Amino acid sequence: MNLENRVIIVTGAASGVGRESVKLLLEAGARVMACDIDETGLRSLEEECRDTSAHLRTKVVDVSKAEAVKELIDSTLETFGTLNGMFNNAGIRDGTHFDSLDPDLYHEHLDTNQHSVFYGMHYAARAMQRLGVEGTIVNTASIRSYFGAQKSFRYSAAKAAVVSMTKSGADALAKDNIRVVGVAPAFIDTGLLESVPEERRERLKGRHLRGKLLEAEEVARVVRFLFSDESVAINGATILADDGYLAVR
Asked: CB burial class (10 A; 0-12, 13-18, 19+) of residue 114?
C-alpha cells in the first residue's frame, strides 16, 4: 500500500490506534505529524520509529482547543509544505453514570471527543482547499455511536455526532476532491481497559466473533486502507472495525 510522500496528521498519536496508525503510515511511505497531549508517549513513539524518523515529526497539542488545532495545521504546512490527510483520532473515555453528570462534565468530554473532530475537519479542509490538493479526512467514531448506555452517555453522544459530521463533511467537501470517512472500532485491548474487572473483560471478549478484544494494530490497518487510493469508492461512510460486535448484538 503506497502512501509515498503524502503528509498526514494523526491526533491521539501517543497510544492505541493512533500510535499504531503512525507506524503503519510511515511504513507505507507517508510523512507524518503525530500529535498528542502526552509528551512522554510521543517521545516513546519517536524512539520506536527511529528507522523512519526522517519522515516523522511530533507535537504536543491539546486538540480540545480550536486555536491549538489551527496552529497544528499551520506548523505541519511549515514543516512539510503540504497536507494530504487528517486523522481525527484523539479521544477520552470514562464510565461516568448519567446521574453523576453536570453541564461542566458533559461539555468537558465533548470538547475532546466531538469538537476536536470539527476543528480538525475545518482547519485541515481549509488548508487542502488553499493548496488545491485531493485529501482524505478520517474520523474515529465507535460502536458506541450506534447504541447508548447509562455509563457512556456523553461518550456515545459525541461519537454519534462524529458519524453524522462525517456524512455532512463528505457532502460539503466532495466538490474539493476531499473525502471524509470514519472508522468505528469495538473494544480494543489497550490501557483504557486495564481498570475493567476481569469478569467484564471476558464478557466483552465474548461479544466479538473471534472471542477476543481487538488489537490496536488491527484497527490501524483499516485506517491505513482508508487513506490509500484503494478506498476511493468509500466516502461519507463510517466503517465498522468491530469483529462483528454489532452484527450479533
From this structure: buried
Q: Is residue 199 part of a domain?
A: no
From residue 122, how far is each of 91, 197, 201 by CA, in Å?
Answer: 17, 39, 37
Confidence of residue 193 (pLDDT cuts 50, 70, 90): low
Q: Residue 178 sits in which domain range?
A: 7-188+216-238
Q: How much of the chain is helix, strand and coil, in % rounded to 5?
A: 50, 15, 30
pLDDT category at 191 given cuts 50, 70, 90 is: low
d(CA 230, CA 6): 15
Q: How far is CA 194 from each of CA 189, 197, 228, rounded to the nearest angstrom?
A: 8, 8, 33
User: How many domains, in total, are found in the chain?
Assistant: 1
Does the annotation count 245 as an active-site position? Answer: no
More confident residue, 96 or 22: 22
Does some domain include residue 73? Answer: yes
Asked whether 21 and 90 are in contact (CB, 8 A), the reply is: no
CATH number at residue 49: 3.40.50.720
Please give the Cα distance from 145 to 130 (Å, whole number): 32
**Residue 248 counted as domain residue:** no
Whether pTM exceeds 0.85? yes
103 is a domain residue: yes
Q: Report which of residues 198 and 172 the model is more confident about.
A: 172
Q: How far apart are CA 93 and CA 98, in angstroms?
A: 14
Under a CB-based contact definition with an 8 Å cutoff, are residues 247 and 184 in contact?
no
The active-site residue, picked from 123, 146, 155, 245, is 155
